[in-house]
């Protein structure tokens, strides 16, 4: 985000403050437009990145069973209301021909994908598709559990409600046993 874009956000935030009946020149709000611009720069920085990048470097290891990184925390912004939704992602895949990714890269792909105006379904499928394309694994299974603040603090107001999305690619699309394996691994501590 360049200086011009940051200024656009600052102006917009000043206008919002005016529109809600606040006084943007009072002491507590003086730096708010600048702070919000900085925050948007941070929470939307995934817009400039492609999660596929993280899978450009791979290792070769003779491992042909599941690799699961679970409970990856993430924060995102709902694209309809620009309020947060957050939770955990579980990313599983079965390498093909020993092509494995660094474990942190699975978490990085989730984080980068989440840092945009998003839908939970799209985060789930983007991560799965990036891994399918770059690692050509036997299969990928991504599960995301999240709480949407647009459903808790406003609107329908259902605090505690959780949304779970799953995306299965490759073998996971039609292999119930393989999917059940992941679900049972998610239950273990
Ligand atoms: N599918 C999907 N829907 C989402 C997600 N985040 C928020 N939503 C929904 O997006 C919808 C937007 O609906 P609209 O009717 O256009 O907006 P609204 O009047 O503010 O809707 P309410 O939340 O029902 O008050 C709502 O039903 C939200 O719950 C998401 O990640 N995936
Ligand atoms: Zn929303």
From TrEMBL:
Keywords from the UniProt entry: GTP-binding, Hydrolase, Metal-binding, Nucleotide-binding, One-carbon metabolism, Zinc
InterPro entries on file: GTP-CH-I_C/QueF, GTP-CH-I_N, GTP_CycHdrlase_I, GTP_CycHdrlase_I_CS, GTP_CycHdrlase_I_dom
Leading EC class: hydrolase
Residues annotated for Zn(2+) binding in this entry: 78, 81, 150
Highest rank taxon of the organism: Bacteria
Functional pathway: Cofactor biosynthesis; 7,8-dihydroneopterin triphosphate biosynthesis; 7,8-dihydroneopterin triphosphate from GTP: step 1/1
Enzyme nomenclature, EC number: 3.5.4.16
Residue ranges of the TM segments: none
Domain GTP cyclohydrolase I, chain residue ranges per copy: 9-186
Enzymatic reactions: GTP + H2O = 7,8-dihydroneopterin 3'-triphosphate + formate + H(+)
Any one annotated GO CC term: cytoplasm
Subunit text: Homopolymer.
HAMAP family in alphabetical order: FolE
Similarity comment text for this entry: Belongs to the GTP cyclohydrolase I family.
Name of this chain's protein: GTP cyclohydrolase 1
Biological source species: Sporosarcina newyorkensis
């Amino acid at each position: 985000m360049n200086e011009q874009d940051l200024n656009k956000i600052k102006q917009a935030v000043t206008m919002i403050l005016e529109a809600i009946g606040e006084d943007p020149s009072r002491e507590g709000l003086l730096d708010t437009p600048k702070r919000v611009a900085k925050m948007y720069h941070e929470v939307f920085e995934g817009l400039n990145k492609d999660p596929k990048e993280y899978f450009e470097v791979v290792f070769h290891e003779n491992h042909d069973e599941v690799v699961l990184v679970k409970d990856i925390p993430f924060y995102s912004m709902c694209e309809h209301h620009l309020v947060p939704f957050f939770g955990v992602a579980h990313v599983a895949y079965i390498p093909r021909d020993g092509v494995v990714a660094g474990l942190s890269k699975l978490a990085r792909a989730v984080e980068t994908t989440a840092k945009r105006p998003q839908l939970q379904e799209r985060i789930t499928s983007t991560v799965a598709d990036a891994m399918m394309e770059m690692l050509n694994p036997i299969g990928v299974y991504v599960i995301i559990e999240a709480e949407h603040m647009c459903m808790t603090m406003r609107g329908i107001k259902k605090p505690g409600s959780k949304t779970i999305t799953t995306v299965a690619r490759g073998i996971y699309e039609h292999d119930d046993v393989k999917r059940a394996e992941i679900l049972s691994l998610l239950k273990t501590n």
